[in-house]
Amino acid sequence: MVSIRPLRVEELEAALRMKNQGWRQAYRGRLSPEILDSLDDTVDAQAEAWRLGFDPQDEVPSVAVDGNGRIVGIAAGGPARGEDPPAAVELFMLYVLEEYYGTGLGQELAAAVIGDAAACVWVLEGNERAIAFYRKLGFTPNGEREQLSDRWNGLSEIRMVRPALRGTPNVPDRTAPAEGAGVRGTSAGA
Questions:
Q1: Under a CB-based contact definition with an 8 Å cutoff, are residues 74 and 113 in contact?
Q2: Taking the CB of residue 146, how many other CB atoms lie within 10 A of it?
Q3: Which residues touch 63 (CB under 8 Å, ≥6 apart)?
Q4: Which of 137, 77, 69 has the alpha carbon at shortest distance from 104?
C-alpha cells in the first residue's frame, strides 16, 4: 500500500536520496558511473538549500510513501518557467523507484502535482521509457529541444506539452516551487 502526500521538512534527506536512486536507475548507461555514484555526496547541501525555502503552508513536492514509511516516489510541479511557456503549469520532476515502474504510481504522482491542467515537461531526449510514459498522460513533443550541461554527456532534453484533461484546468494546491524543485525535465517516467 502506497500513499501520496506532501513532503515533510524532516524527510528532505530521504527524499533526495530516493530521487538520486531514481536517477541511478533511470540514467544508467546515459550518465557516467562517476556522476551517478557521487549523487549522494551533495545530499546535505541540497537538503539545506531546500530547507531554507521550505514552508509547509506553501507549495511543496509530493512523495509516495510505502507501508513501511519509505519514500518510493517524488514529484513536483508548479508555474511554468521560461519565456512564453506553452502551458501555465510545468511538471518539474517525477521519479519512482524501478520496483514501482508500471504500477500506476507515476500517474498518481503526476495527478497530485499538476492535476488536470494543461502542462509541459522537459524529458531527456532518447529516454524512451519516460517519453512513452508522458504520452500516456497526454503529452506530445512540441519541437522544443535544449542542450544540457556538460554533466549530461552532451545530451539534450525535449519539451512535451499536453492540453487540459477533461476540459478542466484543475491544478492541485500542493505543488512545488520552481526554485529548488529539482532537476528540470529529466524525468524517469514510471
A1: no
A2: 13
A3: 4, 5, 6, 7, 11, 15, 18, 71, 73, 74
A4: 137
The answer to whether 188 touches 26, Cβ cutoff 8 Å, is yes
How far is the C-alpha of 71 from the C-alpha of 95, rounded, in Å?
A: 11
Indicate the SS3 state at residue 157. Answer: strand
Tell me if 64 sits within 8 A of 73, measured CB to CB.
yes
90 near 119, Cβ under 8 Å? yes
Beta-strand relationship, 119-124 and 89-96? parallel
pTM of the model: 0.84
- Judge contact between 144 and 160, C-beta under 8 A: no
The pLDDT tens digits of the residues spanning 7-64 come to: 999 999 999 999 999 999 999 988 888 889 999 998 999 888 888 877 766 678 999 9
Letter string b/e over residues 27-39, b meaning 16 or more CB atoms within 10 A of that residue's CB: beebbeeeebeeb
- Give strand pairing partners of 96: 73
Cα dihedral sign, 24-156-148-32: positive
DSSP 188: -
